[in-house]
């Protein structure tokens, strides 16, 4: 594979793992990131885990349309994977203007730059939040798209609508939105992984920060849901399975007309207590937790029907929850404070 693909937000959690996956398979990778919620160390570490000779990166904001168009042209980019955006649900409630500015205005800027550069092949990093609260499970792509429950989810809905309208206006566009469920895990090398800013919004990184001693216990929000163990159930997918889905989507653009959306999940759910148990097995320690009151807006369970992705892309998730926990712990144990360490060279993954 010799094509050049641009990854917006390519130094972030999912972006960096997708970059590693693509580089290992011979793609030319161009990263654009403003490092507001990521670290250039993720890109520096590529040299230690994959052939990184075809990696180039530019520090830029996706709202800078002219700069994006210049990068697309100068780097001879054929396709774009759009990861860049803010992604914390709670933060989106307190700072909605930031989310609309980065996620929506930034996407308008990107698509404008792509049109200027005549690069009309796009894979968009969407989310299962576009479905709102589910009526039936598993969630299929045909499920009614109900109002999102937070500004973050609304921005994902709006960007999908934007891509719909652009593709409808010009048949030269080919786009696929991948609706992620809950990415976890890390690269098996332990060199790159998830490095959330502040208190993690998501369960697995929080559990691992408890395991490493950064936090005292895991708060389990309710144990009286109508589920087998009373705790909430979600669909978790290994980030490397997710990375492989992006390559499959890029290849599928050759046969794509207009814009379509696909669920990307494991196709099964794991409860909060099952995640804690898997993390305990991975770390070899008992991870403390406390049951507290439910959070408003949480649903009992949600997981994907990912059969359409298998049919369209020839893709399916391969790694189970134990593999997700083991790889996530390898990263966390080698990098207790993520990329924020005073001695990057001293870190090596545990056996």
Distance between the termini: 33 Å
What Rg do the Cα atoms give?
19 Å
Mean pLDDT: 94
Order of helices and strands: EHEHEHEHHEHEEHEEEHEEHEEHH
Shape: globular
Helix content: 25-40%
> How many β-strand stretches?
14
The count of domains is 1
Question: Which strand order do you get reading across the main beta sheet?
Answer: 3-2-1-4-5-6-11
Number of helices: 11
Low-confidence residue ranges: 342-351
Description of the structure:
- By secondary structure, the protein is of the alpha/beta class.
- The protein has one domain (4-339): Rossmann fold (3-Layer(aba) Sandwich).
- It is 37% helix and 17% strand.
- It contains eleven helices and 14 strands.
- It has helices spanning 13-24, 41-44, 65-74, 89-94, 96-117, 151-169, 203-211, 239-252, 272-283, 307-313, 321-334; strands at 4-8, 28-33, 55-59, 79-82, 121-127, 174-180, 182-184, 218-221, 233-234, 236-238, 258-264, 270-271, 289-292, 301-302.
- The strands form four sheets. Strands 3-2-1-4-5-6-11 form a seven-stranded parallel β-sheet, sandwiched between helices. A three-stranded mixed β-sheet has the order 12-9-14. It has a two-stranded parallel sheet with strand order 7-10.
- Strand 1, helix 1 (13-24) and strand 2 (28-33) form a beta-alpha-beta unit.
- The longest helix is centred in the first third of the chain and has 22 residues, at 96-117.
- The chain is globular, with a radius of gyration of 19 Å.
- It starts with a strand and ends in a 17-residue tail after the last helix.
- Residues 342-351 have low confidence and may be disordered.
């Amino acid at each position: 594979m010799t094509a050049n693909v641009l990854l917006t937000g390519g130094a972030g959690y999912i972006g960096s793992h997708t970059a590693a996956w693509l580089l290992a398979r011979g793609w030319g990778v161009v990263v654009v990131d403003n490092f507001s919620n990521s670290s250039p160390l993720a890109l520096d570490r590529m040299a230690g885990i994959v052939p990184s000779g075809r990696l180039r990166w530019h520090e830029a904001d996706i709202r800078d349309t002219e700069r994006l168009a210049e990068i697309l042209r100068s780097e001879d980019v054929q396709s774009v994977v759009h990861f860049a955006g803010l992604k914390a649900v709670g933060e989106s409630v307190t700072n909605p203007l930031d989310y609309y500015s980065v996620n929506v205005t930034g996407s308008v800027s990107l698509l404008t730059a792509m049109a200027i550069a005549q690069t009309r092949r796009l894979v968009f990093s969407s989310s299962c939040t576009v479905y709102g609260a589910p009526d039936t499970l598993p969630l299929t792509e045909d499920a009614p798209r109900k109002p999102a429950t937070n500004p973050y989810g609304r921005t994902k809905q709006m960007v999908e609508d934007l891509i719909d309208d652009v593709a409808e206006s010009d048949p030269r566009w080919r786009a696929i939105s991948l609706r992620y469920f809950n990415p976890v895990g890390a690269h098996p090398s332990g060199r790159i992984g998830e490095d959330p800013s502040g208190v993690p919004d998501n369960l697995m990184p929080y559990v691992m920060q408890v395991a490493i001693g950064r936090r005292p216990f895991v708060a389990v929000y309710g144990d009286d849901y109508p589920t087998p163990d009373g705790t909430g159930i979600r669909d978790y997918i290994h980030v490397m399975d997710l990375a492989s889905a992006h390559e499959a989507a890029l290849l599928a653009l050759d046969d794509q007309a207009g814009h379509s959306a696909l669920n990307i999940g494991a196709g099964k759910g794991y409860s909060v207590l099952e995640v804690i148990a898997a993390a305990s097995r991975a770390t070899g320690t008992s991870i403390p937790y406390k049951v507290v009151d439910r959070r408003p807006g949480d649903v009992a369970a949600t997981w994907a029907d990912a059969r359409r992705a298998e049919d369209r892309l020839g893709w399916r998730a391969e790694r189970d929850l134990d593999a997700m926990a083991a790889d996530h712990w390898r990263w966390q144990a080698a990098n207790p404070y993520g990329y924020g360490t005073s001695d990057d060279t001293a870190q090596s993954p545990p056996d």
